[in-house]
Amino acid sequence: MQHNVLILDFGSQYTQLIARRVRELNIFCEILPYNQIPESLDEFQAVILSGSPYSVRSEDALHPDLSQIKGKKPLLAVCYGAQYIAHNFGGEVAPSNTREYGRANLAYIDNSDSLFKDIPTGSQVWMSHSDTIKTLPRHAIKLASTKEVDNAAYRISGEETYAIQFHPEVYHSTDGATLLKNFLVDIAKVNQDFTPNAFVEDTVKELKEKLQDDKVVLGLSGGVDSTVAAVLLHQAIGENLHCIFVNNGLLRKNEFANVLDQYKGMGLNVKGVDASDRFLDALAGVDDPEAKRKIIGRVFVEVFDDESKKIENAKWLGQGTIYPDVIESISVKGPSATIKSHHNVGGLPDFMKLQVVEPLRMLFKDEVRRVGASLGIDAELLGRHPFPGPGLAIRILGDITPEKVNILQEVDAIFINGLKEKGLYDDVWQAGAILLPVNSVGVMGDERTYEKVVALRAVQSTDGMTADWVHLPYEFLMEISNQIINKVKGVNRVVYDISSKPPATIEWE
Ligand SMILES: Nc1ncnc2c1ncn2[C@@H]1O[C@H](COP(=O)(O)OP(=O)(O)OP(=O)(O)O)[C@@H](O)[C@H]1O
Ligand SMILES: O=c1[nH]c(=O)c2[nH+]cn([C@@H]3O[C@H](COP(=O)(O)O)[C@@H](O)[C@H]3O)c2[nH]1
Ligand SMILES: NC(=O)CC[C@H](N)C(=O)O
Ligand SMILES: [Mg+2]
């Protein structure tokens, strides 16, 4: 996988989308913060600069050092990137009269240039900027314009430096994927060889070299990511892989037993550890979402530490961390702010002697599923909805008690089983229930009740980075709501969450 594309992040909300579009071309890519350019760029065949909320004209503008890149590697600069090159190499960027946000059409295109091969005049593009490139930089050739934006695309003559004001990564840029392909395949000559099979082959080889005869302790959750990670590691090191499935007391109804059952016959060495009390004790009385997440992360680490000490010579801790976990948890100056600290990201404390191995750290969820399929993992397991490591703790708003966990387990089971029975489960990317810290008045059998409210959430997504709420049939919602209120003691009201991500997130905490 040496055919690699570097995406420099200036904090645009769309940076991950650029990575997705590149991966969809079967090309491997990595996102790095604009100020963490590696010393050697030998492994990178092309570079893409992302957009940014900053203005190149402002004092806090982000200044990447492009000396190793511009004129030396094929470069595609998007939005802020395009403005940055104009601003720094003899052009001029100024505030535009109107803030350009939304759809526009390329009224003029220089079709003689490879970047615009197979892109028709009039092609719709997505704009999102308030600065505009007034004057092109030195040696620039204009490649496209819209009605409002004269310099919508340019290149630098004699270099493979391309710049575009619009966002090819956004779905509304109709020919965006073609443009990225033109740049990466035709201009930068990157091979399209990043396929699930190639990933498995390369990763197993790398893991073998890295781990040799070492033992690995892997946190297995029953979820897609850790299962795929386990099977990959198992192929690489066989019996040296020790999987630990922790009951944190925050799993779904009967999940501890069901998951242990599900792994029978897969050839993996799996141990179930019931640490419910440890987690629930540590969480008692804590109601702040980030504090809850941090405690759960800490107790997970303590449990893994204890377990690893029981395995002679264990050197590594394996996790099923995937790319969105990493992106949402880490923040650098400017670029993508920390949204929530995923329990499994952020490194291990010093007292732990283990090193971390995360074979899926660079993959998006749908890519993990494809890799899982190519490893021959059961389709039902791969089709499981994601379930967060902190479990029901982040779906019980406020403090956590065993009673609240019980209530939510019952509600969740009714909802999820209902989706399965009605054949809706596979149409939904993720579903769950949230216990609200609110009591509401109801009437049951002529008596006043004053009980808890639960919210149901079902979303559609490809990778969890963005999501839409699912339009579940009213009939179905009605049945589920009846069942919940009739069967689960302590709940007298059910609501349905109709928020998208962004601006909401999938989980409530
Ligand atoms: N109950 C658990 N026991 C052991 N390890 C766990 C547990 N829950 C989570 N982990 C670890 O944390 C990682 C991240 O959890 P996450 O929920 O994101 O992934 P997953 O459970 O593997 O897959 P999915 O997203 O489909 O639920 C897991 O891959 C696993 O290594
Ligand atoms: O392993 C995990 N540890 C966490 O701390 C965590 N927080 C959110 N999630 C899952 O990530 C996806 C995106 O969730 P949000 O929109 O709530 O950020 C959804 O699939 C969430 O269920 C987590 N998974
Ligand atoms: N999307 C962007 O990269 C915007 C760049 C810059 N902040 C502008 O508003 O023009
Ligand atoms: Mg999970």
Automatic annotation (TrEMBL):
Domain of life: Bacteria
Top-level EC class as recorded in UniProt: ligase
EC nos: 6.3.5.2
Keywords per UniProt: ATP-binding, Glutamine amidotransferase, GMP biosynthesis, Ligase, Nucleotide-binding, Purine biosynthesis
Catalytic site positions: 79, 167, 169
Keyword hit for Disulfide bond: no
Pfam families for the chain: GATase, GMP_synt_C, NAD_synthase
PROSITE patterns xrefs: GATASE_TYPE_1 (PS51273), GMPS_ATP_PPASE (PS51553)
Function: Catalyzes the synthesis of GMP from XMP.
Assembly: Homodimer.
PANTHER family per the UniProt record, alphabetical: GMP SYNTHASE [GLUTAMINE-HYDROLYZING], GMP SYNTHASE-RELATED
Protein name: GMP synthase [glutamine-hydrolyzing]
Organism per entry: Avrilella dinanensis
